[in-house]
């Protein structure tokens, strides 16, 4: 919908870890269908903000709104069921299972009442679900590996599988935390293509240190610095922003 209601919104978020204030009065409003890039020096609070938006951890204060609804305090399962999903941590993938089998788990996660004892058996009888898994693997450029185990994948292939797993929950809001980290230039080009395809028809938030890649991808960029909002705007504007420059130079 394009009724002006943000897809996802952080309102005056504060996050304290003991004596450390990781986020202070942080606001972020992401439009429906938008790709929002999030940048900031290490320790700025980007990953913490993502964890709060996905329900992985609660904020100390402030609110999270999803499509106009206050969802502050909902856990990660409920947030995922509502349509907010972050790229999976690869350590949580089942290395001995095939790529296809790894995708069936999150594909089922959005299907109400799907958590049954005979879940894998029923999945194997469900041709539609298998087709969904294979379609996602094709989108990730992993069609040739779909029956093989995850343990056979290269690092770059695993990063693409992570995005596929996040997409398998059919999120309305997709969050990617440093999807290009550790990838070769060739793999970066490939994953940027994957992100472009993945972002079609959904709202996408991306934390990324590769400025060239992110600025070419995002509709707007938000800048965090020392746990606070520093700037938000279109890439061209952020690129020319002297405050952003001095924050990155440590000035
Ligand atoms: P970024 O992703 O921008 O590099 P983070 O959100 O990971 O930054 O971290 C922001 C600050 O919060 C850092 O100082 C970090 O050490 C601290 N921090 C993050 N997570 C925790 C945690 N679980 N416990 C304590 N401190 C944390
Ligand atoms: Mg981080």
From TrEMBL:
Domain ABC transporter: 8-251
Cell location: Cell membrane
Identification of the protein by name: Putative branched-chain amino acid transport system ATP-binding protein
Species classification: Bacteria, Pseudomonadati, Pseudomonadota, Betaproteobacteria, Burkholderiales
Full-protein residues shown: 378 to 628 of 632
């Amino acid at each position: 919908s394009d009724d002006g209601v943000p897809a996802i919104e952080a309102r005056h978020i504060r996050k304290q870890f003991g004596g450390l204030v990781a986020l202070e009065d942080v606001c972020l409003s992401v439009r429906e269908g938008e790709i929002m890039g999030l940048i900031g020096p290490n320790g700025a609070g980007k990953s913490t903000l993502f964890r709060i938006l996905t329900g992985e951890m609660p904020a100390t204060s402030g609110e999270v709104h999803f499509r106009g609804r206050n969802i502050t305090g909902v856990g990660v399962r409920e947030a995922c069921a509502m349509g907010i999903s972050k790229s999976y941590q690869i350590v949580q993938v089942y290395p001995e299972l095939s790529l296809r089998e790894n995708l069936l788990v999150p594909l089922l996660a959005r299907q109400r009442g799907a958590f049954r004892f005979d879940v894998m058996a029923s999945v194997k009888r469900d041709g539609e679900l298998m087709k969904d898994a294979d379609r996602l693997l094709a989108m990730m450029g992993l069609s040739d590996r779909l029956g093989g185990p995850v343990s056979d994948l290269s690092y770059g292939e695993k990063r693409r599988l992570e995005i596929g797993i996040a997409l398998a929950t059919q999120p309305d809001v997709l969050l990617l935390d440093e999807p290009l980290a550790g990838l070769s230039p060739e793999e970066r080009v490939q994953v940027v293509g994957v992100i472009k395809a993945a972002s079609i028809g959904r709202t996408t938030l991306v934390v990324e240190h590769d400025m060239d890649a992110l600025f070419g991808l995002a509709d707007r960029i938000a800048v965090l610095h020392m746990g606070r909002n520093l700037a938000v705007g279109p890439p061209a504007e952020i690129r020319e922003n002297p405050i952003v420059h001095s924050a990155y130079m440590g000035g």
